[in-house]
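Fold sample X.
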Amino acid sequence: MTDFFISYTHADTAWAEWISYVLEEEGFSVIIQAWDFRPGKNFVLEMQNAATKAERTLMVLSPDYLQSQFASPEWASAFGQDPQGQSAKLVPVMVRSCQPTGILTSIVQIRIVGLDENAARKVVLTGIDQKRAKPSARPPFPGTVAHVEHKDFPGSSTAVQHANAAPALPTTLMPALKQNPTDADKRRFAKAGFETIKAVFEANLQSVAQQEPRLEASFEPATAIDFRAELFLDGKSKCFCRIWMGGMQSADNICYSEGRHMSGDSCNEILSLSLAGGLHFQALMASFNFDRKFDMKQLSADQAAEYLWQRFVSPLGS
């Protein structure tokens, strides 16, 4: 088994190679596309083998990574093997500031944004170490630290700078201005929500098929914004759904249809954007009993994913 599979986007190749080199300097084995996927090899098969055979998947986390349509299957594979994080199969290393959403928010990150090389190297190696992070030296006793006011030397340039500095404005001069989400904000939120739903379905399908021998699972992405999920019970199709973005008056809607009787883009549920108290999803056709667990007018991406998943598997209980 390889120790680490490095999952990254082209925009972060330099970071991925630097992290890989640091890991191999410490004796870890690494699979990285830039070094190991040689001309003539099948890219898809190489990626599948790397994600399957590696003990852990290290995500080079950045805004580009979160927007990538190809990164989700890579980290979803590791998440599906360890959904509770007990084995730390999925290790996010944030190299550029970004805001992960959905199930990624629950995974503790290694952050090296803004650090120099020595500090970043230490943080990465400390972060991947699964031992307890107890400091090697006793922390200073908080009760004995005396505050000593620093006095500027009267002839220093600092005093001159302070004298010429503009007076600070009071922080209560005006309240924070409200800013409505832009169309770009809405599109990013909708895409991130769809990726969360997609990742949850793929991971859950793998988990239930492993836990219950009578179940077989199928996950079929049709496009980057359209997938189908199916569960077979004792070989018979029991649960089937299609989930996609777009249609029904808005490209930012997420549509859900269950069963094979639906035609075209007809659906049983539409998740549209709600601006009440910030960006959320709202279920426009919420009639399912499970909807009482959440406020169906203000769903987070995780709640939307759980809502649709419970609708999807409900036939198993009948």
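Fold sample Y, listed below.
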Amino acid sequence: MKVLKLGLLLVLALVLSSGIAGVAKAQTVILEGSDAIGFHCPEGNSAACTYTGQAWKALDGSSGKPIAVIGGNITGTPTLSQGSGVTIDNFSSVAAAGSLSQYAALYFLASFGCCEENDSLITAPGATAAVSAYLTANKGTVMIENYIGGSAWDFAVGAGGLGNLNTQGVGGGGGGTLSCSDGETVTATGLANGFTQPAIDLGCWEHQGYSESFFGGLTSINGKGFTLSFYNADPTETGPGAFSGLLSDGVTLTGGGPSVPEPSSLVLLMASLVALLPLKKLLARA
């Protein structure tokens, strides 16, 4: 029996060293209808800076990795951690960031920090391939500021050229009245993912709202739809259906819940236990 117990301990040590105690990576794409991070926080709005810190914590979780911010904000100064304790690395392009696997998340700033997505960041040579590999092979997290449904992001979002028609507000093709709002409200899902309702307005925070019925039914690069709304759009928005100002196809690292064994670790555990069965039978005969 002592030999069997020793064998079990050895198997357990092998499995733990292979990562069963680790947390499954997030692999998430987030559409953000706000320019709080690229515009209002650098301009000094305290509520926007609080939101920025919450976004960094949500994207980083307990990973201990830095976040790569791609692009420039309105003031041309580095994007800061805003008290989140997360390391923020600023780059002008995807290529300048180097190996993407070293980052907990990639955050793409809008053009000059406001008010529409900066497609030049993802259409630059090699950028789409690098980000696609980051999402699939490295199961990374990507957040797009002021996403307006541009086809340049279809490889990740899976909108099939229809994203813009289902985005309302600045640059969106879906019509509606949304253009400059502070009526957004954090949802229960948003709270679970590290966000709180702003105590004061964020200064014309919301420029885009995303049709939950359309984006929720997509198959993104992660094989799922954008079904998690962190912020509801302003209720005065006149477009039909429900709209979100911060829409995700998965939980953030903060909202990921308890540790989940990676599938490869589970396979290793099962194989190891099966390998012990002959040893158990041999000991029973002794």
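Sample Y note: The two ends are 10 Å apart (CA to CA).
Also: The beta strands are 28-32, 67-70, 88-91, 105-108, 141-145, 167-169, 185-186, 208-211, 228-232, 243-248.
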